[in-house]
Write a structure and sequence with these properties.
Length: 166
């Protein structure tokens, strides 16, 4: 467990070496899944006072499904639509790096503090977005942060469209 906590802290610190490490560690997929679930549960706890939020179990299940679909969409865009000559990745690499980019999301548990929900969620979500751009850049072996951000942006639009239909 100490290894997971250390990795989560390094992921939250935006440690590029951590993202390279989990990209290469095929045994880290389970850890990445745990990070996604912890982040989701933290969001559920942090939004207890907010009407209309999904319960902890449904939120965690939804987060796992979204994590997989997001990684799949990102993989397709990054390797088929916007690859570089150095791009070499598989779905597992994106699942691991994107999963760990959810690490800052555990701070959303602090949203339970009256009056801080909006601020905490804004900061944590922005932090996770930055971490995801780094995760995608490393997983897809991009030299350009801008290219990774474009993959994330295009993926977000596709993901939102899919979510709307579902």
């Amino acid at each position: 467990m100490a290894g997971l906590v250390d990795r989560m802290i390094r992921a939250a610190k935006l440690d590029v070496a951590l993202y390279e490490e989990v990209e290469a560690d095929v045994n880290a997929t389970g850890q990445a899944m745990v990070v996604v679930v912890l982040s989701s549960v933290a969001a559920g706890i942090g939004s207890i006072g907010v009407p209309g939020r999904p319960g902890l179990i449904m939120g965690a299940i939804g987060a796992l499904i979204a994590w997989f679909l997001w990684a799949l969409v990102t993989y397709f865009i990054g390797t088929r639509v916007l690859p570089t000559e150095k791009t070499e990745a598989d779905l597992g690499q994106l699942l691991r790096t994107i999963g760990f980019s959810s690490a800052p999301g555990v701070l959303r548990v602090l949203g339970i503090i009256p009056g801080l929900y909006g601020l905490i969620f804004f900061i944590a979500n922005l932090w996770m977005l930055v971490a995801m751009v780094i995760a995608v850049r490393q997983a897809l072996d991009y030299d350009s942060t801008f290219r990774a951000a474009m993959v994330c942006l295009i993926g977000w639009f596709i993901f939102m469209a899919l979510s709307w239909f579902i």
